[in-house]
Amino acid sequence: MNYFLKLTVFCATTLVLSGCGSIISRTIPGQGHGSQYYPGVQWDVRDGPWRVLTILDLPLSLVMDTLLLPVDASHGPYE
């Protein structure tokens, strides 16, 4: 039962954090760093105290940024 609880917490955490770099870089002003394409990936690889967690988020942000390429092309740089 303990294994099941750990697995559930891990999966829930992964789902909650999935693509957070992509969301933050598009919604919070100043977090996009002036990037038009793949701002979530660039947000994830920046230096900061949460770098370990953002590296775990990198593949999910890559998928999210790829899906949002048409939006980024029409939007322009996120500043």
Give short descriptive properties of this protein:
mainly alpha; elongated; 68% helix; 79 residues
Radius of gyration: 14 Å
Strand % is under 5%
User: Topology as H/E string?
Assistant: HHHHH
**Individual helix count:** 5
Characterise this structure.
The protein is mainly α and 79 residues long. 68% of the residues lie in helices and 0% in strands. It is built from 5 helices and no strands. It has helices at residues 2-17, 20-27, 39-44, 51-67, 69-75. The mean pLDDT is 78.
What is shown here, in short?
This protein is mainly α. It has helices at 2-17, 20-27, 39-44, 51-67, 69-75.
Give the SSE map:
Elements: H1 2-17, H2 20-27, H3 39-44, H4 51-67, H5 69-75
